[in-house]
Amino acid sequence: MTWQTGLTGFLAGLLISVVTSPVRVSGAVFLLPVQLSILHVPNPAVTPTNMLYNIVAGPGALARYRRNGQLTSPLARLLIVGTVPGVILGAIIRVFAIPGPHVFRLVAAAVLLPLGLWLLRRALRPGIADRPPLARRTILGLSVITGAVGGIYGIGGGSILGPILAGRGTPMTQIAPAALAATFVTSLAGAGTYGILALTTTGDIAPHWTLGLLCGAGGLVGGYLGARLQPHLPERALRLLLGALATTLAAVYLFQGLQPQH
């Protein structure tokens, strides 16, 4: 890895985190397209490399939530119980079923499109009423599913569940720490799973440690800056920007994924 690539990764993690942290969206969702299209991290190593971002970028916010006593909530424990086995399953699926970039772009589109539409909907209709909260058993089942998707995409499981829970009336004060804790723990489990698979399977599977750590360091700094700047940033405009970006990326990846393989 060249120093230019490392610097690009650090700056990408920083800028993405500054923009995403004020609207409580995981920067890893938008970092993965940067790794794929700009940094050219090979498949499937791009997924665990993306997880390193969560591992390094998350502890600052986790420490803040811990001081506030928000990490011991039943929701956080429930999400972790479901997403950890899910992310291990997702890593196995990623390595053995969809190791190449073609199908993976369809998976990326499937993650980005709902997130983008949710952000746009929230920005354009901020007063929309939420539906009733989900039952614990339903949340546990969704945690396993989203954990598996997170293990394939490289974002942990809590990031995907956040918008779902928010749309069903769970307060953001509960969702944010629980989703972040689940994302951090599942990223640890996912990166470890990919590391073990790399020892027993051929191919570029292990995370690119230096690049992932540099992206995470940028995310750590960016998350702090984003939290400090949050009162001064137009949240509605940020939601519109991120929603449009996620939707556009999903359309691009969907188009590329549906193209015939040569």
TrEMBL record:
Q: Does the keyword Transcription apply?
A: no
**Main localization of the protein?**
membrane
Q: Which residues cross the membrane?
A: 75-96, 103-120, 140-166, 178-199, 205-225, 237-255
Keywords, A to Z?
Cell membrane, Membrane, Transmembrane, Transmembrane helix
Protein's cellular compartments:
Cell membrane; Membrane
Q: State the superkingdom.
A: Bacteria
Q: What kind of membrane protein is this, topologically?
A: Multi-pass membrane protein
Q: Name one Pfam family in it.
A: TauE
Kindly give the PANTHER family that the UniProt entry links to this protein. Answer: MEMBRANE TRANSPORTER PROTEIN HI_0806-RELATED
Q: Which family is this sequence assigned to?
A: Belongs to the 4-toluene sulfonate uptake permease (TSUP) (TC 2.A.102) family.
Name the record gives this protein: Probable membrane transporter protein
